[in-house]
Structures are given as C-alpha cells and as structure tokens.
Amino acid sequence: MRYISTRGQAPSLSFEEAMLSGLARDGGLYVPEAIPQMSPEDIRALQGLSYEETAFRVMRPFVGDTFDDATFRDLIDRAYADFGHNARAPLKQLAPNHFLLELFHGPTLAFKDFAMQLIGQMFEHVLTRNGNRVTIVGATSGDTGSAAIEAFRGLEAVDVFILYPHGLVSEVQRRQMTTPAEANVHALAIDGHFDDAQARLKDMFNDFDFRDRVRLAGVNSINWARVLAQVVYYFTAAASLGAPDRKVSFTVPTGNFGDIFAGYVAKRMGLPIDRLVVATNQNDILHRCLTSGDYTKGEVVPSISPSMDIQVSSNFERALFYAYGQDGAAVAQLMDELKAGGFSVSQGALQALREDFASGRVSEEETSAMIRQAHATMGELLCPHSAIGVKVAEDKRDPAVPMVTLATAHPAKFPDAVEAASQIRPPLPKRMEDLYDRPERLTRVANDLKALETLIEERIAP
Ligand SMILES: *Cc1c(COP(=O)(O)O)cnc(C)c1O
User: What family does the Swiss-Prot or TrEMBL record give for this protein (predicted)?
Assistant: First the structure.
C-alpha cells in the first residue's frame, strides 16, 4: 500500500513513512493510492467481534508491511487497554432510531484518544526498530494536545511539543497538557487562536531545513494514521446496528474534518453509510461551503465548543481531492487561492460532496438549549460538541434510517459550559479526580515562527 499527496507533487510513501512525516513536502496530505474494499461478507463477519479484532481487520490492509500481523494486534491491544469501557466505543440509544456513539472513555476523555493511543504505540515500535528519535510538534484547540501528551509522555524516542491558544482552552484541557511531569513533554501556550497555532505548525513543516534538523513529525489530524484509526468505530457502530444489511447515517461534530473524513473512508471501503452529516458551531465555514460552495475564511469566534473553533479545516482538503476526481493539480490551485482568503468549489465537485455529506450549524443558544433538553428528555448529559451533533441529527435525520451521533468528549471536560446550560456540574471520572491538585508546567510563546523554532531546538539539544 502506497500513499500519495492530495496535491500530486510529492513522492509516494509507505504507511510507515506517511505516518512519520505527517504533511507531504508539496504541502498536501497523504491518502492511500487505492482504498481497500470490505465485502458485505467481511462486514457481516464483524458482528459480535471485540473492538480490537474489528480494528485489526479494518486497518490491516492499510498498513502494508510496516507491521506483521502479531505485532499489529499487539499494538492495538495495548492502545485500548486503558480505556474505561470494555466496548471501547459503546452505543447508547437516545431516541427511536437515534444512537449516541460514546467516544470519550479514553484517558483524556475525548475521541482523539482512539487515534492518539494507537499512534503512540506505532511510533514507539517503528522508532525503536529503526534506532531513531523524532520531535513531535502538534497544534491543538485543546483535545489533540492532551491526547498526544498522554500517548507520548515518557517515551524514549520522542520529544512532544504542543502549541495551544493561550487562554482559549478549558481548564481540564489545559491541566491535562500542563500536569504531566515527564521531561519529554513541552506545553507551549501561544498568543493567538487555534488557526495561528496550526499555521505556525504548517510553517515549521514547510521549513525543510528545520524539519530535517529536528526530525519533525506531526500527529495532528492531518496525519493519515489518525484518520485510519478513526475509521474503525464507524464499522463497529454500523455492524452492531445491522450493517451490511441495513444502512446507517452518522452525524459528526466537526472542526478539522478528520473524524468525519474517517466516515467517508469507511463508506468508500464498502460500509453502507447513507448520510454523513457535518455539525458545526458558529464557526461554520464547512456548513457554508457545503450549502453554497463558498469556502472563505472568516474570523474565529470563540464558542462553548472550543474544539470546533476553526475557520480552516485541514482535512477538508482530502474530501476535495476525491470530489475533484483525485486531481492533485486542481486541489493545489484551490489551496493557493485559500492563502489569499478563499475559493469557491466547482459545481461538479459540490455535487459530488453533497452525495455523501449534509450539514447543519448550531448557535451558542441552541447548544445550551440542547444540553438542557437532552438531559431533561433523554437523560443524557452531553458535552457542548456532542450537543451540537445531537441537535443537527435531530433536525436533519430521516426517521427510517438509524442515525448515530458521535459523542466526541465527556461532559466533565467542559464542566463550565455544561453547568451553565443544565445546572449540573459533571464530575471527573474517578481515575482523574486529582487533576486539579497536580502542579502545572507551561511556556508562553509569541505567535512567531523563528521564536518557536529556536525554543524547540534549545529544548531538544542533547
Ligand atoms: C477535535 C474535536 C472535534 C472536531 O474533530 P475534527 O476531527 O477536528 O473534525 C469535535 N469535538 C471534540 C470534543 C474534539 O476534541
């Protein structure tokens, strides 16, 4: 299995190389040269299997010869061993034909643990085998950073630097990043929004001298291995609701388009998915684009669902690549236009996108109202992101098709917003009760490429 760039100008790579490098050298994102297929029989055979066994069968064809079967099974088992629920991603019924896929039972209480825990295992295995060290730099709106730090803390072959927007993440998110005491963990609070952090990260990857000097590796949701790990729970959920003999739809609270793009990959592999519904907060570039074709950057307006406060949705590039018939030059052209502020999607590509994706936008007031209502009528305390998903799903769903809404974080990760909406303060799960008592460690940094690069090189100097 080879991986190619969405911009068509970078050499193809193996799974191992694509995982370690993150972003392609032409600025594009890696996608598999061909998407492996699962037959209806393959999918039927998933019913009743463990999460880990399903993960192995779904991901195996993508990893090529990077791991042998026994090693790959072992890495998957270790990745999910610390989850607080045996099903890993349990499904819960909310209403007739509407289900919640709980993706918050990992160590940092958000869905990003599914990919990050596995990536941590895969990196450690590959780097140890090759005798290499890497510097992982990530940008986060809160949850990626905590998940990455949790996955990489204390590993021998890795330094992990996480850029998060100063003052714009929740206290639980911040503490999950600033309290690990391991020397290889570096939490950097940047003066700016998430989009600034993400832009500086991309600048570092495009500074090839720096990139090579520090052996830069990325674990943001642009990393193909992360998308791949997220494909699995679309299969477990659909199989338990009757796939391949019954179609299922999914609603996904969306920011960077990574999680929902994993659903698109599942569909292209053969999983019978009817609709993939994008749910956004007031930062609604994706909803605007899917309704009008206009992808113009706006100002980020901070919301009570901060993990979706994004105006440039990195993984959308992958969806555009397929919507444009895998034409890398067309994608490169759009991304050039984006640098100048935005682009408009061609009619043909927009039609292609709409065959798979629907979308909805939820205001701040509606988000709070949904948290309140879900608690009162469904007995479910939702985090603000998940509430946005449930709201869009309730508004858009076809009652005849089972709808699965992805619950992307535990309510206790956003206790202030949940309490303001519902008057209930969700407690942290027992295993992280002392989070508020642990000492914090962080470095403030300017929104400046050179300053960041200097800091990183100083910190990793032997
Ligand atoms: C990251 C995140 C999202 C958005 O996921 P994307 O893959 O960026 O679309 C939604 N909800 C929560 C809680 C998150 O942490």
Answer: Belongs to the threonine synthase family.
Between CA 421 and CA 395 the distance in angstroms is 20
Could you give the residue ranges of the DSSP H alpha helices within 158-257? Answer: 171-178, 194-206, 208-213, 224-240
pTM, two decimals, is 0.94
What would the 3-class secondary structure string for 51-112 be?
A: HHHHHHHHHHHHHCCCCCHHHHHHHHHHHHCCCCCCCCCCEEEEECCEEEEECCCCCCCECH
Per CATH, which fold does 91-106+227-422 belong to?
A: Rossmann fold (3.40.50)
In sequence order, the 6+-apart residues with CB closer than 8 A to the CB of 266 are 231, 234, 235, 238, 273
Ligand 1 neighbour 114 (Cβ under 6 A) = no
Domain ranges of the chain: 91-106+227-422
CB-ligand 1 contact for 106 (6 Å cutoff): no
| Phi, then psi, of 360 in degrees rounded to 5 | -155, 155
Mean pLDDT per segment of 10 residues, for the chain of length 462 residues? 97 95 89 98 97 98 97 98 96 97 96 96 94 93 91 93 94 94 96 92 93 91 94 98 97 96 98 98 97 94 92 94 98 96 97 98 98 96 98 96 98 95 94 92 97 96 75
Q: Ligand 1 centroid to 256 CA: how many Å?
A: 7
Residues 228, 224: Cα–Cα separation, whole Å: 6
202: tokens are: 């991309």
CA of 69 to the centre of ligand 1 (A): 30
Residue 112 annotated to the active site = yes
Rounded distance, CA 371 to CA 365, Å? Answer: 10
Measured over the CA atoms of residue 222, residue 286, residue 251 and residue 167, the dihedral's sign is positive
Instruction: State both tokens at 300.
Output: 């980020």
